[in-house]
Design a protein that fits this description.
With 565 residues, this protein is an alpha/beta fold. Strands 1, 2, 5, 6, 7, 10, 11, 18, 19 and 20 form a ten-stranded mixed β-sheet that branches. A four-stranded antiparallel β-sheet has the order 13-14-16-15. Strands 3-4 form a two-stranded antiparallel ribbon. Helix 10 packs parallel to helix 12. It is globular and about 70 Å long.
């Protein structure tokens, strides 16, 4: 019987692989890995303040500049600031130290030292409390509270030729990323860039910093027009009522003489990036015998998020402009012929204004009421504890309606224990509070291990607990509670919670010659320093990092092996 032509063809098709397999030569050995790259001459560490993983996911498809370059490298979209105190100072302290706030000692932007003689007892995270001229509102800036070295600090110990440079609009970002041994450190302070008290500044650097400050000051004095709205951002350009005003239609015009307009706009980031590039050129970063470090923290995203929330046209304009600012920075380093490795992450995430979320049918998002204020809590705690109010000073100290709460040292040990127990009970009974932990509970909780997305709330609180600086009680609000009461002027939204919208941040690495890849599994910002230490050939004794080394080349090269320096 003759088979139909189609069946004959099918028979041949099935038979062919067998014949081909019989005749095929033995498989060749795997291609060798590419040769290891030498240590880069410059580490470029970038933080984008309040740049959540949610914003990264929302905007990544639209970038064409610096972000686009980073997207061609090693992409970790689910990075974590794994601790509960998701504020600027603690977050920045993790990035180049490889240590959580429980080890860096930076437990918040502000904490309280009840042993200090100063009124209010408050301490700012990067101030010199020994200087009589310093105050939390106008600090004499120092990194002294940072308990561990940064990558730049470690490199300078190994090789004094390393230059360690940091720049930002915020002094705390500079101090926490630059560390104790900076060769140049500049931040913005009312119409100009300033540096550490008593710091010696190279004449060329001083001239360029003065020029950058003057250019910005001239813009502030004269004012500036609105920033153009990218076409695809126009759908976000609509007003939402909030308090006595609106958000959602800001285009970043600078009113003459208004420093705040300049600072909370893409122009602040552009000035920061331009100064960073000028410092790299002035100090010949990446062109010496040793590996240098340039830390740049872009602050405007945080200012925009606070003032306008995260989902309006303001944030759209800001992130599209930052993409171009990053592109300019990278192009400038390329033009200088520098072999650099870049990393970009954030100190924390952020959350949109409840008024806008409410229109999106998200009922969990509400503003906090007044029941967690110290004025409201104090009489309740006194009544429940049965303790008399201290004769001198307040019963409780706190920097807001959540986080660290401190009990007066004027109380006896027994009365203090009663107040702590009462405060925990009162807090847990509040419908806007998720839970509360005592310092004693946190002190005996082991430091967390495993995946940061699975950390329990007590583990998240433990990751930012320092027994010498943290409060007697740590209070965590429920998911979606915005700790800014109605009627507050200036701030539409904030961060600081233990929830993932504040903890999750992107982590992006790029180096010329590395293969691009994306790793969706959770990693931590404390993994950045050990990864960079391996890339630059810096050997660090075991146990000094809370993080681990990450593969930055998609397995093509072992980037966790120590290269030749």
């Amino acid at each position: 019987m003759r088979l139909p032509l189609a069946l004959c063809a099918a028979s041949l098709a099935f038979a062919a692989p067998v014949a081909a397999q019989d005749a095929a030569p033995p498989p060749s050995a795997e291609a060798p890995q590419p040769a290891p790259l030498p240590a880069p001459k410059l580490v470029l560490a970038i933080s984008v303040d309040q740049f959540s993983a949610d914003l990264f996911a929302e905007y990544r498809q639209h970038w064409t500049g610096g972000f686009a370059r980073l997207l061609s490298g090693a992409v970790f979209p689910s990075g974590f600031q794994s601790h509960a105190a998701t504020e600027t100072c603690p977050g920045h302290s993790t990035i180049l130290t490889g240590a959580r706030p429980s080890r860096t000692g930076i437990v918040a932007n502000n904490w309280f030292d009840l042993s200090l003689a100063r009124p209010g007892k408050q301490v700012y995270c990067s101030e010199d409390v020994t200087d009589p001229a310093s105050s939390p509102k106008d600090p004499v800036v120092t990194p002294n509270f940072l308990k561990v070295p940064t990558l730049g600090d470690r490199l300078k110990v190994v090789d004094k030729r390393t230059r360690n440079v940091a720049v930002s609009a915020k002094d705390r970002a500079v101090m926490m990323m630059g560390g104790h041994a900076t060769d140049a450190a500049f931040w913005w302070k009312k119409d100009g860039f300033v540096t550490l008290k008593g710091a010696r500044v190279d004449k060329v650097v001083a001239a360029d910093v003065a020029a950058a400050s003057k250019a910005a000051a001239d813009t502030i004095a004269a004012g500036a027009p609105e920033v153009p709205v990218p076409d695809w951002c126009r759908g976000k350009d609509r007003a939402f009522p909030i308090g006595g005003g609106t958000i959602g239609t800001g285009h970043f015009a600078v009113r003459p003489g208004k420093d705040g307009d300049f600072r909370a706009s893409p122009r602040m980031d552009a000035a920061t990036g331009a100064l960073a590039l000028k410092l790299a050129d002035d100090l010949k970063l990446g062109r010496g015998k040793a590996t240098d470090v340039l830390s740049v923290s872009f602050s405007a995203t945080d200012y925009v998020g606070h003032g306008n929330g995260t989902e309006g046209v303001e944030m759209c304009i800001q992130l599209m402009a930052l993409d171009q600012t990053l592109g300019t920075l990278f192009a400038g380093l390329d033009a200088q012929g520098i072999d650099y490795v870049a990393v970009l992450t954030a100190d924390h995430g952020g959350y949109d204004a409840p008024e806008r979320l409410d229109q999106q049918a998200y009922p969990q998002a509400v503003r906090i009421d007044g029941t967690m204020s110290l004025d409201a809590l104090t009489p309740l705690v006194l009544a429940k504890s049965g303790v008399a109010a201290p004769a001198d000073g307040p019963l409780l100290y706190a920097d807001g309606p959540f986080g660290d709460f401190y009990v007066s040292k004027a109380l006896s040990g027994e009365d203090k224990d009663k107040v702590v127990a009462a405060l925990v009970a009162v807090a847990k009974a509040n419908p806007q509070v998720e839970t509360a932990f005592t310092a004693a509970e946190l002190a005996v909780t082991p430091s967390p291990t495993g995946s940061p997305q699975d950390f329990t709330l007590i583990q998240r609180a433990r990751a930012s607990f320092d027994p010498m600086r943290s409060g007697d009680v740590v209070i965590l609000l429920k998911r979606g509670i915005m700790p800014i009461p109605k009627g507050t002027t200036g701030y539409a939204a904030t961060h600081g919670s233990p929830w993932d919208y504040d903890r999750r941040v992107p982590i992006l690495f790029w180096r010329k010659g590395y293969a691009g890849f994306e790793q969706p599994h959770p990693v931590e910002t404390v993994d950045i320093a050990p990864s960079l230490a391996a890339v630059v050939g810096l050997k660090v004794p075991a146990g000094q990092f809370d993080g681990r080394c990450l593969d930055l080349d998609g397995g093509a090269r072992d980037t966790c092996a120590t290269p030749t320096r």
